[in-house]
Amino acid sequence: MDQDTAQSLFKRRCYFVFLDVPVGTEFGIDYNSWNVGPEFRGVKMIPAGLHFVYYSACNKEGQTAPRTGFFYNFRKKEIVVRKWNRLLEDIDPDIDVRGDMLQKFHDNKEEMDRYLGAYPYENCMSESLVEKLQPENGKILSVSEFISESSDTASRKKANDNQPDKSFTEPTSAREAESQLPQMKVQPGTFIRFTELPKKRYPEGSTPAEITKCSMDSTYILETLLKENLNSIEKDLLGEVQFSFICFLIGQVFDGFDQWKKLVHLLCSSESALTNHTQLFLDFVGVLYFQVHEIPEDFFVDIVSQSNFLTTTLQEFFSNVDCSSADQSLKRKCRKFKEHLTSKFRWDFDSEPDEYAPVVVDTN
């Protein structure tokens, strides 16, 4: 980046000022993360729009705590200031920089420049969608917070009196051991509110032939999801594909991976929808293209390649596109995407999956 461009971005873009962060703390925005150095004060030149900010405390031995993150919608030229609380090992919830104090940061941007890292990547997402999906407390936690069910002396005594044998015995099974653990539930307000996919796969009154077709083609589920859950806004469906991807890849939330798989499989298996939702699938291919390139290579081995999910799902998608009357622009884009994946990752999309291969039955 030349000096003139850097100066222009410095003046027009946003800042996240993060004060008193201990050296070694992991800090990141979107796909970029750093280990904080002694002069770190935040990040500059952030594009306006939605971004995922995250951090993990680190002890002297270099061990990091579970990751915590949140989505923030940066306004044009906005400066956001947060301060680290060493006791909580988290952002201080009681410090809110506004008014004259915030103006001082605006006035001293030039002096802060050398303490701010440069934002290297552009990203954008719908603010209303994030508000709908993220937990009520606004934090994406890689490890769920649990609370034990409330009890008092009387209730514990009653539960103990109902036990036929008050003496402790070693559990003989996992189920028995689990029954002896305290009753725990996830802290209210910390759930990610992923959109639930419709459970009914076919319309009321369907014939057996129609039920069979709907079991192989997910278009009915896709249309129901768009109409009843997303107000027919196709962009929000792709937005949730991106949201869940960020949650599992960067936020380290496994539920995000599960939702991402469900949505990717839904889109890849909706054959009839290919002719009626051309732009949705054109954009979907673009989203997948960038997501595949953001996943670390070892991540494919550890998670994505379980049961060959991505290769078998994309194989079904490419086959559906080839056999459909989809728009030629979509067919061309899918063909290029398939060729790119085959060349880059050596994935085979032409061999027949084992579950569809013919079975030889010995009748002797």
TrEMBL record:
Keywords: mRNA processing, mRNA splicing, Spliceosome. GO terms for cellular component: spliceosomal complex. It comes from the Eukaryota. Residues 15-134 form the AAR2 N-terminal domain. Pfam families: AAR2, AAR2_1st. Residues 154-178 have a biased composition (Basic and acidic residues). InterPro entries: AAR2, AAR2_C, AAR2_C_sf, Aar2_N, AAR2_N_sf. GO terms for biological process: spliceosomal tri-snRNP complex assembly. CDD domains: Aar2_C (cd13778), Aar2_N (cd13777). Residues 152-182 are annotated as: Disordered. The keyword Nucleotide-binding does not apply. The keyword Ribosomal protein does not apply. Belongs to the AAR2 family. Component of the U5 snRNP complex that is required for spliceosome assembly and for pre-mRNA splicing. Interacts with PRPF8 (via RNase H homology domain). Component of a U5 snRNP complex that contains PRPF8. This is Protein AAR2 homolog. It comes from Mytilus edulis (Blue mussel).
